Amino acid sequence: MSSAVVFDVDGVIVDSPHERAWVEALAQLAGGDWRALVPDTRYRPEAFDTRAYQEFVAGKPRFDGARAILEHFGFPDAQTRAVDYAQRKQRRLIELIEQGAVQAFPDALRMIAQLRRRNVPLAAASSSKNANSIMEKIDLDATPVSAAGATERARPTRLLDCFAANVCGQDVAGKPAPDIFLAAAAALGVAPAACVVVEDAPAGVAAARNGGMKSIGVARLHDEAGLAACGADLVVSTLDDVAIDLLVAGRLAARHAGR
Q1: Does 126 share its domain with 224?
Q2: What's the pLDDT tens digit per position in 36-95?
Q3: Which of 98, 114, 147 is the last residue of a domain?
């Protein structure tokens, strides 16, 4: 039996402006203070696309993601410049969050509601230090969570309150290290082997595997092959396709399997 489910946040539960903030912050620096560096790098604004974000930034702590993407684009002294870049990105992200550029994925809310009805312990585990402020802005009373659009009784009014454990933003080694997910398991009082992690990034799937946990990869960016290659036990394009009853019973399968 699956004892607990651990959710990454950005890209799994919420469609947040993280990627937009990273892209816009680097474009601002490249067009301003770092203008003289750009001719000697591989960087072009259009080259910082979703594929690059997923490969070098998604799922990593802020500084690690900043350094990785700067190294990818060939910026000199990436280790030092990552500090300025990460700070610029954070300022832009806060601006976007305050402007309301955040929304929840309905399929994720439906999955969370179904698991809560079955009394499955849930944890939120994101490397992002912004995850909680983002989830705090998701008002569940304004968001239908069932396929038919009906509301749930006796449920939290904020997404942030849906989890028995929350380890978002802890200062631990970044993915693909399993530390954030191991912290979630410990906070729930559940063995790692009894946890299922829900992730959208290859680094997150690898982190779950490295922690001895099963994982569901949700391919919101049509990157099924990459998630499977990193070890996802089940890959779906929407969380509505996860067979919840089987998940609770300890099996990972898609709802349409065997039809």
Answers
A1: yes
A2: 999 889 999 999 998 899 889 987 888 999 999 999 999 999 999 999 999 999 999 999
A3: 98
Instruction: Point out which residues pair with 236 in neighbouring strands.
Output: 218
Tokens standing for residue 220: 């919101």
Would 152 be classed as within a structural domain? yes
Q: Which amino acid is at 136?
A: E
Rounded to 5 degrees, what are φ and ψ at 123? Answer: -130, 145
Strands 195-199 and 214-218, sheet pairing: parallel
Retrieve residue 196's tokens.
């299922």
Q: What is the pLDDT of residues 186-232, one digit of tens each?
A: 999 999 999 999 999 899 999 999 999 999 999 998 889 999 999 99
Strand partners, 87: none
Pairing assessment for the beta strands 4-7 and 122-124 based on DSSP bridges: parallel
Indicate the number of domains in the chain: 2
Report how far residue 35's alpha carbon sits from residue 7's, in angstroms, rounded to the nearest whole number: 39
User: Is the model's pLDDT at 256 over the cut of 80?
Assistant: no
From first CA to last CA, the distance across the chain in angstroms is 23
Helix %, strand %, coil % of the chain (to 5): 45, 10, 40
Q: Which is nearest to 75 in space by CA: 101, 47, 96, 99?
A: 47
Residue 162 sits in the same domain as residue 58: no
Q: Are residues 213 and 244 in the same domain?
A: yes
Bridge partners for 194 per DSSP: none
Cα–Cα distance measured from residue 236 to residue 32, given in angstroms and rounded to the nearest whole number:
41
Domain membership of residue 136 (yes or no) is: yes
Same-domain status, 118 and 152: yes
3-state secondary structure of 40: helix
The values of phi and psi at residue 216, to 5°, are -110, 125
Range of the domain at 91: 18-98
Residue 110 pLDDT:
96
